[in-house]
Q: What sequence folds into this?
């Protein structure tokens, strides 16, 4: 049981550091860009309202 847990933990860490597929990395980048863009848009709207 202990060995099984260790193996799954190692697999999970490897997946986090190095995504198995490029699509995962692309999705992360897209989410980051979209959130940044939304923050900038909200900030600009707030300034315009003032």
A:
């Amino acid at each position: 049981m202990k060995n099984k847990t260790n193996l799954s933990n190692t697999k999970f860490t490897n997946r986090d550091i190095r995504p198995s597929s490029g699509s995962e990395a692309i999705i992360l980048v897209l989410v980051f860009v979209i959130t940044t863009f939304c923050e900038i848009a909200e900030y600009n709207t707030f300034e315009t309202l003032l």
